[in-house]
Amino acid sequence: MESESFDLIESNSFDMINERQPLLLGNDTEQTVPPRPDVRNSPENVIVDGSDDFKSPDDDYEPYKNRNLEHPTSNLETMILLIKGNIGTGILAMPDAFRNSGLYIGLVSTLFLGFVCTHCMHILVKCSHELCRRLQVPSLNFSGVCFASFETGPESLRKYSGHARNLINIFLIITQIGFCCVYFVFVAVNLQEILTHYWMKLDTHVFLILLLIPLILVNLIKTLKYLTPLSFIASILTIAGLVICFYYMLQDIPKLASVRPYATWAQLPLYFGTAIYAFEGIGVVLPLENNLKSPEDFASCGGVLNSGMIIVAILYTSVGFFGYLKYGDSVKGSITLNLGNNLLAQLVRLAMAVAIFLSYTIQFYVPVNIIGPWLRSQLHGDHVRRFADYGLRIALVLLTFILAAMIPNLGAVISLVGAVSSSALALIFPPIIEIITFWPNKLGKYNWILWKDIVIIIFGIMGFIFGTFTSVLQILHPNQDHE
């Protein structure tokens, strides 16, 4: 996530794209464009530089040729990071998403949604290239692209460029706070399942309280390089957990007729919220493309983006399809809760709980690095700023704790986060940026790009409205089916 100057924050981690990571913010001071950093030395692996010092247009300027990388990533490395950046807690909720759509509707809709989200990623990359040429900067990040599209777009919209960037940052904050709430609930619910089997049943809120102090302490660590080993451990545990989940799902698979082929219209918004939450990996796209050794291979027909997202779509569809087919309407908000009570199932729950607990800190750095620079700019004195920084971290952890305690329904939380913030970032903003960037003379014959983007925007807005409404109903009345 970013601000007007797109600052760099150093780190040695190459393993910190554990979830859909948006871009981090820097401070608000002006700066010239520095050599573009290696993604493996960034705290979220998604921090790139940019500049608001717009230069005169130059049709011969090629961003690729002005990117100075000490350690560029290969196509294979970038694809692995893209897949890793899209695989997180959302994949464990896909069987629950299929429960709200039906087996066949979920199968078709998940592949379709993956196609639309991938197309929006292409839109963002294309607009980034165009705006980099206009501004003669080597690279831009998400909010930088949004800001530059307004700043160089129609005259009447230029005065809103700052507001547009702030809106992107607000949704990025909402997204990351939502992720942290999901993580909080996920860890608590899985620990509850383990202790219920081996000891006694306690309320989910007890586990949320027990997790509060450890999460506050670990999130007081400011240097992300100290968290690199934790990120690596989380990655290994996540892979192992998914493999074992497939082992359970593919045993004694019931007949297709044992589950519903389609659900009611009232349930589809819940499916949309969960599925778009899972697919919201648009925040990693620009950083990965910006740090690729052969950037021209990223968005080509058979390039890194398409290949990686095909794998992601197949994984999500497979987990949703076989998870729902295996457990039917009894499937829960996370597939780990359906695996039974033997030792291997308990180890999977523990492994995924630990992995998500360790990943919380990475997600948490995003809102801290958006709000932190602004907060420090309002204060004077190093001691006051240091105290305020610690206070901000504690306050944000407490906020996620309060929200998680208010909504301990894991499936509903995931659907709400997806509907509110992920739909905006993944489906609504990219086509808006494309329309403004290429208005009015580069929208294709008969303005087909304009009409295509309008359809995607309407689809995103409908998902936003109905998904949010249905998710809130599910939270307020968790025992009703809303059919």
3D architecture notes:
The chain has 483 residues and is mainly α. 62% of the residues lie in helices and 0% in strands. It has helices at 75-86, 89-92, 94-99, 103-135, 142-151, 161-198, 204-218, 228-249, 268-279, 285-290, 304-327, 343-377, 382-406, 410-438, 448-476. Helix 4 (103-135) crosses helix 14. The longest helix has 38 residues, at 161-198. The two termini are 38 Å apart. Residues 1-56 have low confidence and may be disordered.
- Give me the strand/helix succession: HHHHHHHHHHHHHHH
Mean pLDDT: 81
How many individual β-strands?
A: 0
Structural class comes to mainly alpha
Helix content: 55-70%
With helices defined by DSSP (H or I, 4 residues minimum), what is the helix count?
15
What about the largest sheet? none
Beta-strand residue fraction: under 5%
- Given as residue ranges, the uncertain stretches (5+ residues, pLDDT < 50) are 1-56
| Gap between N and C termini | 38 Å
General form: globular
User: What Rg is obtained from the alpha carbons, in whole angstroms?
Assistant: 22 Å
